[in-house]
Amino acid sequence: VQLVESGGGLVQAGGSRRLSCAASGGTFDMAWYRQAPGKQRELVAAITSGGRTNYAESVKGRFTISRDNAKNTVYLQMNSLKPEDTAVYYCNAGDLAYSGSYHPYAYWGQGTQVTVSS
Question: Measuring CA to CA, which residue among 16, 13, 8 is closest to residue 79?
């Protein structure tokens, strides 16, 4: 399984950015994680192969995860960005349970940096 993220960059607070993750090697539930300097990696959003989603409280109402199964690509639309959203964003393949808990498999992309300036 290979995951390749793209779409990171510098954006002003209040702005928007869309991240993409192109997957190859299988169809999985997918998730976006992020890791800010000095902090642990945290789950941002997850989506099943059928489109069921789950979000971290900190991004609800601002971020939207979606997928195009024909292209085997997952997206993260980020709106109303805040400086605290600054992090390296990683794509992951795993399993999103009906309980809402997400179990990451050992498949990660290389990460894409998102920097939000104030």
Answer: 16
Strand boundaries in the chain, DSSP class E:
2-6, 9-12, 17-24, 29-35, 42-47, 53-55, 63-68, 73-78, 87-96, 102-108, 112-117
Rounded CA separation 75/77 (Å):
6
Strand partners, 10: 115
Radius of gyration for the chain, computed over Cα atoms and rounded to the nearest angstrom? 13
Structure tokens at 82: 């805040």
Q: Alpha carbon 88 to chain centroid distance?
A: 10
Residue 71: pLDDT band (50, 70, 90) is very high
Share of the chain above pLDDT 90, in %: 96
In this prediction, residue 26 carries a pLDDT of 86
Tokens matching residue 76: 């993260």
With left for phi above 0 and alpha for psi between -120 and 50, is residue 50 left, alpha or beta?
Answer: alpha
